[in-house]
Amino acid sequence: MLYHTKFLGGDTIKIGFIGPGKVGVSLGRYFTHKGINVTGFYGRNLENTIKAAKSTKSKVYCSLKNIIEESNILFITTPDDTISIIDTEISSFNFNLKNKSICHTSGSLSSNLLSNVKHSGALTYSIHPIYAFSSKNTDLKELENIYFSIEGENINENDEIITLMKILNNKYFVRSINTYSSYHLATVFVSNLVLSLLEIGTNYFKEFGLSEKEALEALKPLIMGNINNIFAEGFVKSLTGPVSRGDITPIQKHLSVLREDHKNVYKELSLNLLNLVALKMSLKTDNTAHEKNKELELKNLLENSNEYKYIYKILGGIEL
Fold it and tell me: Which portions of this protein are annotated as coiled-coil regions (predicted)?
């Protein structure tokens, strides 16, 4: 379930950041922009920590002990393989962490990674901003539109972390603790793997003598038009291309010029497009059709169309 509730305030929340990297600095700047009290930053690299603190007009902490004492919410924004080390270090102070909220921002790890601070009384969370942070100078206006996913034990409306979300006025959703692998997989598919797919397509344009920049400029209207259509109409109504049309000849020509290491990617993605084509055809006759019927609808499509049946075969589809 998605939440988006307007909430004013923020002066009682004090947030400290452990890790002055792209995510930590960007979120720190954004929280400050939203009127939230950022206490400061702690980091291994003093120069980066000083810059992070300056960007948020906050404090440089030289010890974990001090930032813990002066913050009621701690964001661990370090690389994934450092989070458990920070968890151990914090718990080594033998503090009573009751009423402290400690979270990491990794989408690929669960809140269970913070087991030591949890045993010391802290409320622990994985809070993942669904955004690709490529810089510490992230446009704050862009951050106003991002979603946050929250995972933790027994989350309720009275949790301070939920209060923070309401102050930010960003949309968010709560997910269960066993979802972190599939959740992160979803974000990788639509972000990192899309980047890889675009790079593959752009390289074919470079074979025509275009630079990467020129190829991207040429392809941008096609890419953005497709993305805009998906957001406006959904996947099924945005279908175009030879698979959608049942056009066999262009697909055969594609397969003849594809690099060998790209063939499996092409075939798998095209087979998935056939699933969407089947769903589109079924929606023309039955408005109640939905994705749960995908396998049945594909079977019906192949039984009723020799063109699509042949496309399915040359793409390496297994007989249904």
Answer: none
